[in-house]
What does this fold into?
Amino acid sequence: MTAFARETWIVFWRQLRIALRNPAWVIIGLVQPVLYLSLFGPLLEPMAGILGTDNAYAIFVPGLLVQLGLFGALFAGFNLVAEWRAGVVEAERVTPASRTALLLGRVLRDVVQLLVQGVVLIALGFAFGLRASVGGMLYGLLLTLLLGAAAASASNALALVAKSEDVMAPLINSIALPLLLLSGILIPMSVGPQWLQTVSDFVPTKHVVDAIRAAFGGDFGEPILWGTVWAVVIFALFAFLGARTFRRENA
Amino acid sequence: MIHARGLARSFTTRKGRQVVEVHAVTGVDLDVEAGEIVGFLGPNGAGKTTTLRMLTTLLAPTAGSATVAGYDVATQAEDVRRSIGYVSQAGSALPEALAGEEVVDHGRLYGISKEQATRRGRELFEQLDLAGMWSRKPRAMSGGQRRRLDIAMGLVHDPKLIFLDEPTTGLDPQARANLWQHIAALRTDRGATIFLTTHYLDEADALCDRILVIDHGAIVAGDTPEALKRQVAGDLVELTLADEGGVPRAAAALSVLASGASPDVDGLTVSVRVPQAGRELAGLLRALDRDGIGLASIEVRRPTLDDVFLNLTGRSLREEAA
It folds into this structure.
């Protein structure tokens, strides 16, 4: 095992251990998808016809996946602010460990959390009546993880620069809310007026949501291609920016 | 162990629309030899922590150079990090984690195996009076215990050079005295070199072989505590008289002791610095008695590092630190 992989593993395992020891973190993480499915899902069922499908959950579950990925991971940086305040970040940065590993280990924790939440969400979706292709669901989960990793990198890098919850919270909310609305996470943009559809075409995460929906529907065509390209681009961009921030002196 | 030449760091910050350059450290030269305990003394904002962060590779200098443990901080940062222990002001352990696990994980980031890190951690807990705290959360530990845990984390890879940033800030007097013993033991027991910052005079006095006084980003003096205190030119003799009538004659008598220097007079209090008060006191008392001057009190104060600081900078360290 290379030093980099070993250091990433040490950071990841420490993060996971601390998170699992906090039952609130585990419970909230698992309850969230359940609440969405049980309290919002039934509202969509009668609308299946309008949405152009016979299975509303095949539209709804992919949206929830992306929402979990974006929202959960975007707030991951709050942990880092608390760690920074306790001196943990300084203490780690003065060890010879790779600073990129310090980021990657943390992002991996968020990806694992997202994976578990995603699997729970899909399994519960089945109980509610979701029917979709297995390969498509796995592929959709993969795109979700890429997006989540990007969001977690961005959030951790932001935390390292801002070092304050008071700066981060409004900033993240002002990014996440329009992203959420314009990605068609709860209801596909295709049912909206033309101008709204045009605006949403410029939102990269909308294409990712569309791709995951297409994958769930077993339609491995053009939407999947574009969504995948966007997911990879977003991931690469924020992984790079995050790593650069962590490597910088005095970050 | 540490050699710095012209080490400087400036930050740019915005004040409204104006971009302001702040020179936190303007050019520090310092040398610390193996086995020394050196204190970096100065008020808050003097540049102590900024200098320390440059020496520990957490901050890149904007000018100058430094070698730490034989490695250049700018080009061999990783070797420097491997060779030093750093205990920051903020602490090192997460309050919600378990103390022992934090030490082991920290050691493993230095490349030490889990078994070895555990063994070293247990030893350190024993030495630092933390036995039984292995599975405790730092949140549930006292301030002194948490600080000792931070030190254990800084020592888990057995560095020969240890940086301590304000090690006893925020601790009660008993915990401070206890921590001083532990810090002094780092040298006697493991031959470590220690570089610490402090704004406490008594701490610098009690622990350090040598003190570097920093003010406004530059070192203004560096010597042993005793030699620094000698620079202040003697002990302070302070007389408080029983009545105002005696003030002029008492001032004259003190002036003789101080070889002509005029004493400070403040109401009924007359004071002057004399090279060695002990030798002069008996004669002074006899002279005052002969002249019939009544004394309310007489006090002799050995110079303190606060006097040194006041002498060097014209300001009192106590006021700054408060």
